[in-house]
Amino acid sequence: MKNLKASPPALFPVCGACHDEDQADLIFTMAYQPIVDIKSKTIFAYEALVRGPNNETADSILSQVNDQNRYRFDQGCRTRAIELAARLGLPATGADLSINFIPGAVYHPEACLRATFNAADRSQFPLDRLVFEVTEGERISNPAHLVAIVEAYRRHSFRTAIDDFGAGYAGLNLLAKFQPDIIKIDMELTRSIDTRPITQTIVAAILQVCRALDISVIAEGIETEAEAKTVLDLGIHLLQGYLFARPGFETLPIPTF
Description:
By secondary structure, this protein is of the alpha/beta class. 33% of the residues lie in helices and 19% in strands. The protein has one domain (18-249): Alpha-Beta Barrel (TIM Barrel), CATH 3.20.20.450.
């Protein structure tokens, strides 16, 4: 895969909040959890997960995010995830880097990519190895804005994913508004899926839709061999969960297949 050079930040418009790129008022770092391709026994990607500086939980940090610091937090997460992953040698693994973003923190899609390009340029991180996951705890109030974000990211070779698909508001209505490159089926659907025939039917239907739309599917929250075998039998070979590796605090865990 070619290594795309980060475009000069000057090419992008700058909104007022961009000047606060390096002034995040929350102290945090990242853990990384692998997403594996069970067929090829390779690492498809590492997902960056926010943690406190002493490995405090994500909730301990996310509970401090508010309307005043949401933008700076979102930008800081991108920067920290890319720069730390580069220092840990992620590009040499051949895996992608998956970063969560908050649609409501993206004021202008092109302007808000400034921190991403700066971090990639400083770290010599290949842009075409970045995946951005939509995370939204509440209903997305402006679908057109989300579509604009996705289109802007695609213009710069970034891929997008819908996280926690099948839980909350991340469902078929959201999929109808825009088609990402990847969906991640929520652990509420994969948990004990080997003993839940109805859930198996639902997941199989989701997979059929995604195949028709040329969308890759990842099964999240896989903790047992029976769950892994069931989703693999359904046709999903990209898996993430404790069965393979727990998130590694400021490290890139090697998964167990």
